[in-house]
Design a protein that fits this description.
- This protein has 12 helices and 12 strands.
- The protein has 2 domains: 261 residues, Cytosolic phospholipase A2 catalytic domain (3-Layer(aba) Sandwich); 105 residues, no CATH class.
- It is elongated and about 85 Å long.
- It is an alpha/beta fold and 397 residues long.
- Strands 1, 2, 4, 5, 7, 8, 9 and 10 form an 8-stranded mixed β-sheet that branches. Strands 3-6 form a two-stranded parallel sheet. Strands 11-12 form a two-stranded antiparallel ribbon.
- It starts with 6 loop residues before the first strand and ends with a helix.
- Helix 9 runs antiparallel to helix 12.
Length: 397
């Protein structure tokens, strides 16, 4: 396939320690010749996305992620108040700040002596998801929304799982884990991302395989989180997974909890392998089958438009109108699969055609149809055929 067909804005969802699987997933993306136009993430996914965005090699990120352990939580929080949490999160913030700044400044880096890296300083596009508990809404860190915000501090907010890390207080608002909004497609929460025309690949980390052992309070909380999260992910994939613009990869980590930070080295390596296998299988098997269906759908639309054009150019406007009706009958059944931009373009074209249509009647029935502004309709018809033809070629290649 052409590289452009494999270009995505990639979103890495949260999932605690299970985020180690993103190392394997990223390796599979590189093997599949995926070009990444931008990064987004929530919770542990935000950390992975940021490390990629500042330019770390995957081998470096793998080393960082394999070293994640209980040490990050040793700055115990004793001042609970209205912010009950095990850890202050200061050790984790210091670690993230060091990783971001040392890569950004390179050899000239002096720990604690450099200006903090802000979103506007980054070359790569980076969107960090978080949740504003005070105002009960999604909170975004990005070049467009928060150009002056420090990247490491945004990560600290996004990983603030309630009960684990203290929330981040920004102007009196408590900002926590971006994965609290996981019941929505993450791309849809961001005005920055939802407005983009490029394809979106969203990773979701789940643990929905098999029967769980619920022996402790922590097991119970994990089971509740996994059940809610799993239902949301399956619903979202069912709703959007077959659409042209969106691809979803669910990495099921099989009975590894979000907060299992004492995971053995061998288990961590298994997570890397799981991420690689699932992502690799998606690009080798699942995506080609999906694209085949998309191609058949777009090709059918292309045929309708070419038939329409023949009748239109022969000045058989009534026949052209009937073919347009057939096309929209087809779209009623297949709308969910095609790019929303293309669907809206088809709707606009039909409206324009209808607005320019004049009926010539006989005694009791419509005798013929004419167009008031045929040149305008013809211009937009040709543009639409060009768009559909390019899409058909893109999907097929």
């Amino acid at each position: 396939m052409k590289d452009k067909s494999y270009e995505y804005f990639v979103i890495f969802g949260g999932g605690g320690i299970r985020g180690i699987s993103y190392v394997g997933a990223y390796k599979a993306l590189m093997e599949a010749n995926v070009k990444i136009s931008g990064y987004a993430g929530s919770s542990i996914g935000s950390v992975f996305a940021a490390l990629c965005a500042v330019g770390y090699k995957i081998s470096d990120i793998e080393e960082f992620f394999l070293s994640i352990n209980i040490e990050f939580f040793k700055d115990i929080n004793f001042n609970f108040g209205n912010q009950i949490a095990l850890s202050k999160g200061e050790l984790l913030l210091e670690w993230m700040r060091d990783k971001i700044e040392s890569k950004f400044y390179g050899e000239g880096y002096r720990k604690g002596q450099m200006p903090h890296v802000r979103f506007k300083d980054l070359k790569e596009e980076l969107i960090i998801y978080s949740t504003d508990l005070t105002n009960n809404k999604y909170n975004e860190f990005s070049k467009e929304c928060t150009p002056e915000a420090e990247v490491a501090l945004a990560l600290r907010a996004s990983v603030s799982m309630p009960g684990l890390f203290k929330p981040l207080d920004i102007n009196g608002n408590l900002i926590v884990d971006g994965d609290l909004a996981k019941s929505w497609p993450l791309w849809r929460l961001s005005k920055t991302l939802s407005a983009k025309k490029e394809r979106i690949l969203e990773f979701r980390l789940e643990d929905t395989k098999g029967k769980r052992n619920i022996d402790t309070a922590l097991d119970y909380l994990n089971a509740v989180y996994n059940t809610i999260s799993g239902f949301a992910t399956d619903y979202i994939i069912d709703l959007y997974g077959q659409k042209d613009k969106f691809d979803y990869i669910k990495i099921d980590t099989d009975n590894i909890s979000v907060m299992d930070f004492m995971l053995s080295e061998s288990k961590k390596i298994e997570l890397v392998e799981t991420g690689y296998k699932i992502t690799s299988d998606y690009f080798k098997n699942v995506l080609p089958a999906k694209r085949k269906k998309l191609y058949e759908n777009y090709y059918q639309i292309q045929l309708f438009l070419l038939k329409f054009k023949r009748e239109f150019e022969a000045n058989k406007i009534k026949n052209a109108y009937l073919i347009l009706c057939e096309l929209f009958s087809h779209l009623c059944e297949h709308k969910r699969y095609i790019d929303l931009y293309i669907y809206n373009s088809l709707l606009e074209f039909k409206k324009q055609f209808d607005d320019n249509l004049e009926h010539k009647t006989g005694f009791f029935f419509i005798k013929d149809m004419v167009l008031l502004n045929k040149n305008l309709v013809e211009k937009n018809m040709n543009e639409l055929i060009k768009v559909i033809t390019l899409k058909t070629v893109e999907i097929k290649d």
